Inverse folding.
């Protein structure tokens, strides 16, 4: 079970990474980052079967921090939207050469 | 390897010889700083400031030369009382010091250098005095005296150096000062170009000097005069390749500095400078540096008969050539310039036939009468300029066709200049007669010597020298008659303004006049002294210069006599020394009188009139088109080559390569800029790429 | 039985993940995400991490996703959306890179299966602890004894996040 769960974790992780690269909408990009976090949580929990209860504890903290990060990140996206009327990253590319 | 002999003690007591060189140098520093101070930017100088600075410069400038002259005189007197004065070599510091080449910064005071020093400081002092009056209205008064002092300093370094490199320092220095002084009125484009021309043509000679020094070092291992005197005859083979090459290169140096064929073209242009400069530099001192070089290297030249013949040949050809040009010039200073070139040719002829004393003798007398001629011409120009300025005329104050009959207005100047003219024409008892006569006689003697190296050649030289002497008499008389005698041709209303030269100008002229008259009496051979030429022994003439220079050139003369046998006692056309002396002076007097007579008959053409000159007159007037030939065959091709190098190599190749490397940098930058899209997705991609790389590194 | 359940949940998780990445509408992406999170919670249960499964549903799928939805509604991105998936080169490069990462990791996993199990030292212990302290107790006891400081800091972090979000999202007058 554990190895299959780890495989699954890898798959979800790479799908999440692909999503970050492919999607233009800032909120959806953020969502894909959450996917990545979710995949990593899965890996931790799977391994905690063998490595001890600390794995699950760490997942607990990861979730908390993910919540905090989601709140702040979305607040940033909102303030960007207020300024530039868009969340499409193509249009927010001001830090170029 | 021979080390230089340092600090040889002479058999007379020297008197601060270093002061001779230091005084003009200090004068230069002082005058130079004064000039810079007066002209400092952002400062308004009042006329009171300028006149005060002029007073200071007038004291410092000539004063420093006076100090030098006094010191030279004291040393000279101390040397004079000793029977055979030996050389003083005093080293101040070691200039170049390597394991097998040592050059000391040292001076050598011996009989030869003392003669030169006396001429330089004495005539130089007189010219400084003259300049005080001539340049009194110039704004750059202090600058003028600074340069003039610097020139005297370098010239003294040249003649007082104890080795060839030190002489070369002075050589270059006088070239520099010549440039600075010729281009003194540098705002005028033409005058500045004349300065450039002088410097550049001189440079060609400098190449010869350097090559000569290198070869000398290669053969001898040292380049100072003491070592040369001690070991030259042992190291070099008579007529060998080494000596011939070295002497030919030194000849090239002399040709450049002393304005002989083919490098004489700078001297007529150098007349663009102030007249006292022409007097000092281009008559009395700088141009004699070439002759000094050859006399210093007399031992080398006596060992190389081929080079000596070439020296004499160049000298006599130049003498003849320049004399022909002088016959048809109308500018007062140009006549004197070509006359200088011609007389320098005589000096070269003298040293070329081994008559080193005669060459030096003519150098000294020439300094006297040529300086007198130039200064007198300067007085005339000064007067004419002043007069023409008063009537607002645009006439050239230097053109002799605008003069005539100035005898009435400038009687003293006229008399003194006649003294100089008779001297240069070789009329007895003036100085030029004795010196020129000795040179011509020695040429003839060498031609008739027992085993003369090139008898026919020397006979040719002898005849050319005679012909040139006659030409000299002619053109100098023409010069005087056109300027001072005949009808007055100056513009209307100038007559009352043409005044005699001021006292400060006349004083040096009178001293030089005295020397031109009696200066030749210091070197009369015993035969001549006993004859009519020497007043049958009643006139106070001596044989002194010959004996004085003996310590320096005796070995060279001995070598020549060894190889050539006894010199002839008859000239190539028969007749002894005395007869020829009398013949030549009579011929000179005849030419002078004939010319005066003929010219009083004919009208002098005015400026700008249509001349129906023959082809030869045109040729002579245009200086045999030498400048034009040089321009077409040397200057233009050089210009074209450098233009080609510039366009094709510098611009085409190098600039393109450099620009290309710039473009490469630009391209790399452009490539880098592609990664900076500003979008988060791109950066996330690169993050992932980095992660992949890290994974690969960890897992492989 | 467990394997079948695992397979079902796994496919739902992957399907949801793909849906997040490929769905054109933002709301659809979000809902797919909820599906994925839910299936992951199911897998947690199968892995005997019951507490975490509950927390996953309540906090992650319940609160955070709702927050996302609120923001999407606030910014009115729900309708009139343009296609915002990149095409062409980006997809290709992304595929290559992520595929390589996945391949590398998978290869590593397939290499030595036994090592993984040998690495386990306390697999039996975990079950024993669960039997002793109960499911919640096995997490609560370390949390409030050894990792108390971290726990408190997490509280502070949440507080900071609230303040930060308030300041950033405030309407500027």
């Amino acid at each position: 079970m554990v190895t299959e769960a780890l495989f699954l974790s890898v798959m979800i992780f790479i799908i999440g990474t692909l999503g970050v690269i492919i999607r233009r909408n800032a909120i959806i990009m953020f969502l894909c980052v959450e996917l990545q976090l979710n995949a990593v949580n899965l890996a931790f929990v799977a391994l905690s079967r063998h490595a001890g209860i600390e794995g699950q504890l760490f997942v607990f903290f990861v979730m908390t921090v993910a919540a905090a990060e989601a709140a702040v990140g979305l607040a940033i996206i909102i303030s960007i939207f207020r300024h530039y009327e868009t969340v499409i990253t193509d249009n927010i590319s001001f830090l170029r050469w | 390897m021979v080390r230089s002999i340092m600090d040889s003690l002479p058999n007379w007591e020297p008197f601060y010889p270093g002061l001779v060189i230091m005084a003009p140098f200090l004068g230069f520093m002082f005058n130079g700083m004064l000039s810079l101070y007066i002209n400092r930017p952002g400062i308004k100088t009042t006329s009171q400031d300028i006149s005060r600075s002029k007073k200071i410069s007038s004291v410092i400038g000539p004063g420093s030369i006076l100090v030098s002259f006094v010191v030279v005189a004291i040393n000279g007197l101390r040397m004079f009382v000793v029977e055979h004065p030996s050389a003083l070599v005093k080293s101040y510091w070691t200039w170049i010091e390597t394991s097998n080449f040592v050059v000391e910064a040292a001076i050598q005071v011996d009989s030869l250098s003392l003669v030169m020093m006396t001429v330089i400081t004495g005539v130089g002092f007189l010219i400084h005095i003259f300049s005080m009056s001539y340049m009194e209205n110039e704004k750059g008064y202090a600058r003028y005296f600074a340069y003039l002092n610097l020139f005297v300093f370098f010239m003294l370094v040249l003649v007082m150096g104890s080795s060839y490199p030190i002489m070369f320092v002075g050589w270059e220095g006088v070239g520099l000062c010549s440039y600075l002084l010729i281009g003194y009125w540098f705002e005028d484009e033409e005058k500045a170009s004349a300065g450039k021309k002088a410097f550049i043509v001189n440079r060609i000679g400098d190449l010869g000097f350097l090559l000569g020094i290198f070869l000398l070092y290669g053969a001898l291992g040292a380049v100072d005069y003491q070592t040369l005197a001690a070991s030259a005859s042992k190291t070099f083979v008579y007529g060998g390749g080494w000596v011939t090459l070295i002497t030919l290169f030194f000849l090239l140096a002399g040709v450049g500095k002393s304005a002989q064929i083919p490098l004489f073209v700078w001297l007529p242009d150098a007349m663009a400078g102030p007249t006292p400069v022409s007097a000092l530099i281009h008559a009395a001192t700088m141009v004699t540096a070439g002759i000094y070089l050859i006399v210093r290297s007399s031992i080398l030249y006596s060992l190389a008969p081929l080079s000596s013949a070439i020296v004499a040949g160049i000298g006599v050809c130049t003498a003849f050539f320049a004399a022909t040009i002088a016959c048809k010039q109308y500018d007062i200073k140009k006549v004197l310039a070509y006359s200088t070139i011609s007389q320098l040719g005589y000096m070269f002829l003298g040293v070329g036939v081994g008559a080193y004393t005669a060459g030096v003798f003519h150098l000294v007398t020439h300094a006297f009468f040529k300086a007198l001629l130039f200064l007198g011409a300067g007085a005339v120009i000064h007067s004419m300029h002043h007069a023409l300025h008063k009537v607002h005329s645009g006439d050239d104050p230097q053109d002799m066709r605008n003069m005539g009959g100035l005898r009435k207005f400038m009687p003293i100047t006229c008399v003194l200049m006649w003294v100089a003219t008779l001297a240069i024409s070789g009329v007895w008892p003036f100085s030029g007669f004795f010196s020129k006569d000795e040179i011509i006689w020695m040429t003839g003697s060498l031609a008739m010597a027992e085993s003369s190296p090139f008898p026919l050649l020397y006979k040719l030289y002898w005849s050319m020298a005679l012909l040139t002497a006659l030409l000299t008499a002619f053109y100098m008389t023409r010069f005087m008659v056109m300027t001072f005698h005949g009808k007055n041709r100056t513009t209307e209303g100038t007559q009352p303004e043409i005044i005699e030269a001021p006292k400060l100008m006349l004083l040096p002229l009178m001293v030089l006049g005295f020397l031109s008259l009696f200066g030749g009496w210091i070197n009369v051979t015993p035969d001549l002294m006993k004859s009519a030429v020497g007043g049958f022994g009643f006139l106070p003439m001596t044989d002194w210069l010959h004996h004085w220079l003996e310590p320096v050139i005796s070995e060279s003369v001995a070598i020549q006599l060894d190889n050539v046998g006894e010199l002839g006692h008859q000239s190539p056309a028969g007749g002894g020394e005395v007869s020829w002396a009398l013949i030549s002076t009579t011929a000179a007097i005849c030419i002078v009188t004939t010319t005066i007579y003929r010219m009083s008959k004919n009208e002098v053409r005015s400026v700008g009139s249509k001349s129906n000159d023959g082809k030869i007159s045109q040729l002579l007037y245009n200086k045999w088109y030498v400048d034009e030939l040089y321009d077409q065959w040397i200057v233009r091709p050089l210009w074209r080559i450098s233009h080609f190098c510039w366009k094709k190599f510098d611009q085409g190749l190098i600039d393109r390569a450099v620009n290309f490397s710039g473009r490469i940098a630009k391209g790399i930058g452009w490539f880098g800029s592609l990664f900076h899209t500003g979008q988060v997705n791109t950066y996330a991609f690169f993050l992932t790429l980095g992660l992949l790389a890290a994974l690969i590194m960890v897992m492989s | 039985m467990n394997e079948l359940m695992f397979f079902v949940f796994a496919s739902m998780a992957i399907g949801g993940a793909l849906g997040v990445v490929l769905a054109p509408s933002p709301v659809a992406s979000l809902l797919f995400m909820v599906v994925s999170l839910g299936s992951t919670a199911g897998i947690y249960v199968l892995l005997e991490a019951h507490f975490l499964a509950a927390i996953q549903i309540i906090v992650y799928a319940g609160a955070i996703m709702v927050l996302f939805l609120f923001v999407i509604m606030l910014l009115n991105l729900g309708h009139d959306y343009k296609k915002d998936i990149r095409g062409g080169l980006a997809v290709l490069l992304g595929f290559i890179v992520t595929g390589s990462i996945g391949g590398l990791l998978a290869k590593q996993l397939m290499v030595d299966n036994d090592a993984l199990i040998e690495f386990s030292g306390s697999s039996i212990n975990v079950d024993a602890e669960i039997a002793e302290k109960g499911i919640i107790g096995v997490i609560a006891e370390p949390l409030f004894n050894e990792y108390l400081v971290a726990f408190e800091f997490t509280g502070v972090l949440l507080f900071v996040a609230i303040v930060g979000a308030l300041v950033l999202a405030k309407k500027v007058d």
